């Protein structure tokens, strides 16, 4: 059990899982099938909950467990189910070619990851409480990268549903940043944020459905009537 | 201390004998997964034996490149193979540049093969050559970056040095840099050995061929040499993947007892890797050619991230 | 106690209207209308009570500092409650007219007029509740959640008419708002991080504004720097600052007019409120120069962008939206100039803008319903003859909003310019005047074309529900140009002190 108690091991596990989260995000950028995108998002949320649990364990911060479980339930299970049901109703499987072609978007995502690392640099202070507290550096860099890549995905995508997914990835990045910077925000704030995310997904889901009905397609580049 | 000459011979013999075995293993496993019986593990040996005894037909329009290519491919791959640490951390041959030399030797073989495809004057050969070059243009940088990631950890591009460092110090496979480089190199392995989802090694349709299209006009011993060279390349890349990232069981010196242990470990790890390749092949369909750059761009980005992460993590 | 009541009233109105489908009696339109108007009337009275209590005894708080109301909150609550009341009275008449005209049947996915009315009357109190929560919440994270709730509650108000263009507007609104608010959340998180070193900062208190403001000087500087940029971009999106303003013209022209008025005035007030809270924290941590320059940049850019769009505008509701963007830019510029005078000017401007803009939107609604178009080309003029009271009110509102003396907005803008030149922001002052002139030209051109002249329509009758609020607002607009009640002036002054003591 000694390895399990060692914060170095925890650090390695968190780093590993953060790298996996990043790989999943880049895989989402590369994906063409909407259903696979949704499943990758679910896997990413699972990993985030696992990271939160690990950080909670090594820092003896029980309130993060609650946040982790809530994230798991809401973003790992509920939201993907809602979105997949929506896809089934809309009957669209594939994304048309994104605005920037895929190999270039992947390379741009790699570049954004580096930007995320540079931005996270000022927050890395190993001289403060060494060991458990630095658990967060890699996770914070990955969180900022997730944020930036989600932003890029939102601009890059044409289908309304994938834009919603990009927004959710943004939120994922924020969650990871919250966990790694401050071991989660006060519980009530976490609850508020989660509630907002859920309601937002519902609202956006309904909007996407109505858009599909109206425009016969989820292609947002067709919505061009309001100008000036 | 066994003289270097002997180690080279031993490794060469190992390469030549094990390479077709790995190919047969993969084919048979794939067949079994698809509920077929498969050709049997030793089938490639029988194929080679048959090919070397057959007569050859050469196209009239072909030049000396057509005849030279099988020899170039075979020898380049064999020399590159001598530089990879297979059963000992100290590879028999250590040319300047280490891993760069390996990449360029493989590149030399590919260059001649592409030329030979064009040389025959048939359009399918040209098709295969251009496709092969497209894939190579993306796969080679990814491979180099991935191996550099490991090289940085060992402060040298010599593969022997890399393997030695790997076996000696506390090597963490779980470091993200290693993982990313491993993932990138795995994708490159699939691309370079022409497996599904990049290329179908068993296809009969010329329009879906890449590697097969280039060697369509070859027959007899030339074909045998090229096929053997291809399987040596496959073994070489698999061994590189195994011994750079999972080097446990690799002995540092050349001693008889150590060699035997190394060999056993190597065969076991090759088996595991072959099984994963078979799983990947069976679970996926061949990608449209225009989608292959997506996959390779992913490999490239993973490798680049892995390389950069050695400085950051 | 008052604070809890203040929150509870609109929430219960929302719940009441939402479940009113239960019985046929409660489903009637008149019940929905009555519940709404009474609820907002009570809310307004409670807001007055809060304001007077804050004036008498300083900041009040409830539930261990969870709800907190100082002069700034009290002012914004008062303004928002007043707007909500006026708009609810107007909405009664407006929606009745819509139902009569058949505009509620919609093109796509029609729910039926009754269901739409129920949706409107449940979502509007929810929107007001969230706006009140924004101003009352002490915890910056809860404030963020409340602002997000305003976005979510108003999305379906934008799609109210179910037209193709409504969907497009709602999608832009939801997406741009979503991204902006994510940035604001990141900024809030960084603020929390900046303050987490202090004891007692775990748990809810770590994000409480009243506590953070006291420790502002010791907050972690690099984090606060990045936090302010993110919050500015985020809440700026909600306020409609350029370049994140593209959702505004669409949303305001597609939403039903009373909702557009609430969105344009009250939600804007909440967004500015959020910006002000963060500005105070940042300026005490990093000095006023850094946040000030960023605010000036965005504020002037917004004012600048409004000018060409107002000049070539073809639709008077979109023109009002660009005017709102311009006003938001003005308020943010005033915040950026800094100093006591500018802060006072900002609070005055917020008050005056509330009155003038709601007047404009409500009159525009009347015009739209009478002429059934919002394009200048099709209106061709004659509004003053057809709708004398509305036309006069629109004219008054326009003169006020472009800053003509003797109207109130002229005074607050003059104070802003004086503050700019007083603190050596000469370029700022010059650009302010220049952009103000540009907007003045554009708006006056279009509005005069619209109001003057003749029209074939017959003179419209007096509609009590719709015209009374407009008349009252017009009278208030004229009066506040010359005189403000002493208590209100004191409240404004105290609110300015929160910004710049």
What does this molecule look like?
The complex is a heterotrimer of chains A (228), B (313) and C (501). With 228 residues, chain A is mostly helical. Chain A is built from eight helices and no strands. Chain A has one domain. In chain A, helix 3 runs antiparallel to helix 4, helix 5 packs antiparallel against helix 6 and helix 6 packs antiparallel against helix 7. Chain B has one domain. In chain B, 70% of the residues lie in helices and 0% in strands. Chain C has a domain of 214 residues. Chain C is built from 20 helices and two strands. In chain C, a hairpin with a 4-residue loop joins strand 1 and strand 2. In chain C, helix 4 packs antiparallel against helix 5, helix 5 runs antiparallel to helix 6 and helix 11 packs antiparallel against helix 12. At the A-C interface, helix 6, helix 7 and helix 8 of A face helix 5, helix 6, helix 8 and helix 9 of C.
Question: Which helices and strands, and how do they pair?
Answer:
The complex is a heterotrimer of chains A (about 230), B (about 325) and C (about 500).
Chain A: H1 2-5, H2 7-30, H3 34-59, H4 62-90, H5 102-120, H6 137-156, H7 160-182, H8 187-215
Chain B: H1 4-33, H2 43-53, H3 64-82, H4 99-119, H5 123-154, H6 159-168, H7 176-192, H8 211-214, H9 220-245, H10 256-283, H11 292-312
Helix pairs in contact in B: 1-9, 1-10, 2-9, 3-4, 3-9, 4-5, 5-6, 5-7, 5-11, 7-9, 7-11
Chain C: H1 2-18, H2 29-57, E1 60-62, E2 67-69, H3 71-101, H4 113-136, H5 140-158, H6 164-194, H7 209-214, H8 221-239, H9 247-254, H10 257-286, H11 289-311, H12 316-337, H13 340-371, H14 376-379, H15 383-386, H16 388-401, H17 408-422, H18 426-451, H19 464-482, H20 486-499
Antiparallel strand pairs in C: 1-2
């Amino acid at each position: 059990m000694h390895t399990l108690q060692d914060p170095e091991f925890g650090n390695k596990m968190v780093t590993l899982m953060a790298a996996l989260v990043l790989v999943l995000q880049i895989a989402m950028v590369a994906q063409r099938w909407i259903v696979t995108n949704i499943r990758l998002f679910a896997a990413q949320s699972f990993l985030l909950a696992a990271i939160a649990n690990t950080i909670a364990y090594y820092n003896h911060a029980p309130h993060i467990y609650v946040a982790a479980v809530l994230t798991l339930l809401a973003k790992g299970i509920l939201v993907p189910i809602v979105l997949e049901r929506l896809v089934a109703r809309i009957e669209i499987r594939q994304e048309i070619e994104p605005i920037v072609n895929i190999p270039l978007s992947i390379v741009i995502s790699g570049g954004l990851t580096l930007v995320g690392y540079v931005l996270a640099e000022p927050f890395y202070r190993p001289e403060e409480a060494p060991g458990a507290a630095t658990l967060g550096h890699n996770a914070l860099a990955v969180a900022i990268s997730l944020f930036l890549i989600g932003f890029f995905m939102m601009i890059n995508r044409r289908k309304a549903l994938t834009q919603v997914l990009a927004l959710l990835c943004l939120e994922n990045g924020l969650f990871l940043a919250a966990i790694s910077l401050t071991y989660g925000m006060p519980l009530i704030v976490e609850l508020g944020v989660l509630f907002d995310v859920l309601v937002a997904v519902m609202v956006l889901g309904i909007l996407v459905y109505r858009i599909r009905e109206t425009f016969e397609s989820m292609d947002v580049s067709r919505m061009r009537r309001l100008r000036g | 201390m066994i003289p270097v000459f002997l180690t080279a011979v031993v490794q060469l013999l190992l390469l030549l004998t094990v390479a077709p075995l790995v190919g047969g293993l993969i084919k048979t496993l794939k067949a079994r997964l698809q509920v077929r019986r498969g050709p049997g593990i030793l089938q490639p040996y029988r194929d080679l034996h048959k090919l070397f005894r057959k007569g050859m037909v050469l196209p009239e329009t072909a030049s000396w490149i057509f005849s030279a290519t099988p020899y170039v491919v075979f020898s380049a791959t064999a020399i590159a193979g001598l530089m990879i640490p297979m059963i000992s951390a100290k590879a028999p041959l250590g040319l300047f540049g280490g891993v760069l030399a390996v990449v360029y030797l493989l590149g030399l073989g590919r260059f001649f093969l592409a030329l030979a495809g064009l040389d025959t004057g048939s359009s399918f050969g040209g098709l295969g050559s251009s496709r092969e070059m497209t894939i190579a243009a993306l796969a080679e940088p990814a491979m180099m970056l991935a191996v550099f990631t490991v090289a940085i950890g060992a402060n040298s591009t010599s593969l022997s040095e890399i393997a030695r460092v790997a076996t000696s110090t506390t090597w963490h496979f779980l470091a993200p840099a290693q993982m990313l480089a491993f993932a990138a190199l795995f994708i490159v392995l699939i691309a370079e050995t022409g497996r599904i989802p990049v290329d179908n090694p068993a296809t009969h349709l010329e329009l879906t061929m890449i590697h097969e299209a280039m060697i369509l006009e070859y027959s007899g011993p030339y074909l045998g040499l090229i096929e053997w060279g291809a399987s040596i390349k496959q073994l070489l890349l698999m061994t590189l993947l195994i011994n750079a990232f999972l080097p446990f069981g690799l002995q540092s010196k050349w001693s008889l007892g150590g060699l035997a242990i190394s060999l056993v470990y190597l065969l076991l790890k090759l088996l595991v890797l072959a099984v994963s390749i078979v799983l990947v092949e069976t679970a996926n369909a061949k990608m449209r050619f225009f989608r292959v750059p997506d996959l390779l761009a992913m490999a490239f980005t993973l490798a680049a991230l892995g390389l950069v992460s050695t400085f950051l993590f | 106690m008052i604070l809890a009541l203040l929150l509870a009233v609109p929430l219960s109105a929302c719940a009441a209207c939402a479940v009113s489908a239960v019985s046929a009696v409660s489903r009637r339109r008149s019940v929905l209308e009555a519940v709404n108007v009474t609820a907002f009337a009570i809310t307004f009275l409670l807001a007055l009570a809060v304001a007077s209590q804050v004036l008498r005894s300083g900041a009040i708080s409830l539930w261990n500092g969870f709800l907190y109301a100082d002069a700034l909150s009290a002012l914004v609550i008062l303004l928002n409650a007043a707007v909500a009341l006026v708009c609810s009275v107007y909405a009664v008449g407006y929606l009745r007219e819509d139902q009569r005209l058949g505009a509620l049947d919609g093109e796509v996915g029609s729910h039926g007029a009754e269901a739409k009315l129920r949706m409107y009357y449940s979502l509007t109190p929810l929107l007001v509740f969230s706006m009140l929560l924004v101003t009352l919440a002490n915890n910056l994270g809860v404030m963020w959640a409340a602002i997000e709730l305003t976005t979510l509650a108003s999305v379906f108000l934008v799609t109210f008419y179910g037209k193709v263009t409504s969907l497009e507007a709602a999608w832009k609104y939801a997406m741009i708002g979503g991204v902006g608010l994510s940035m604001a959340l990141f900024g809030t998180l960084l603020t929390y991080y900046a303050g987490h070193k202090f004891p007692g900062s775990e748990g809810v208190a770590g994000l409480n504004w009243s506590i953070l403001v006291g420790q502002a000087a010791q907050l972690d500087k690099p984090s606060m720097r990045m936090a302010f940029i993110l919050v500015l971009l985020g809440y700026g999106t909600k306020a409609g600052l350029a370049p994140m303003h593209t959702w505004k013209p669409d949303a305001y022209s597609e939403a039903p007019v009373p909702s557009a008025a609430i969105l344009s005035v009250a939600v804007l007030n909440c967004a500015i409120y959020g910006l002000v809270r963060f500005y105070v924290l940042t300026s005490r941590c990093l000095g006023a120069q850094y946040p000030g320059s960023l605010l000036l940049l965005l504020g002037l850019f917004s004012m600048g962008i409004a000018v060409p769009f107002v000049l070539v505008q073809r639709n008077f509701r979109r023109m009002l939206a660009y005017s709102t963007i311009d006003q938001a830019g003005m308020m943010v510029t005033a915040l950026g100039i800094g100093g006591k005078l500018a802060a006072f000017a900002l609070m005055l401007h917020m008050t005056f803008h509330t009155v003038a803009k709601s007047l404009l939107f409500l009159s525009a609604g009347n015009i739209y319903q009478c002429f059934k178009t919002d394009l200048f080309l099709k209106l061709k003029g004659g509004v003053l003859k057809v709708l004398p009271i509305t036309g006069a009110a629109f004219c008054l509102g326009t003169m006020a909003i472009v800053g003509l003396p003797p109207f109130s907005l002229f005074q607050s803008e003059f104070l802003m310019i004086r503050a700019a030149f007083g603190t050596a922001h000469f370029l700022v002052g010059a650009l302010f005047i220049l952009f103000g002139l540009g907007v003045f030209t554009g708006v006056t051109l279009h509005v005069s074309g619209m109001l003057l002249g003749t029209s074939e329509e017959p003179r419209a009758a007096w509609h009590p529900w719709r015209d009374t609020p407009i008349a009252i607002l017009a009278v208030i607009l004229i009066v506040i140009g010359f005189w403000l009640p002493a208590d209100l002036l004191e409240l404004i002054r105290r609110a300015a002190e929160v910004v710049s003591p």
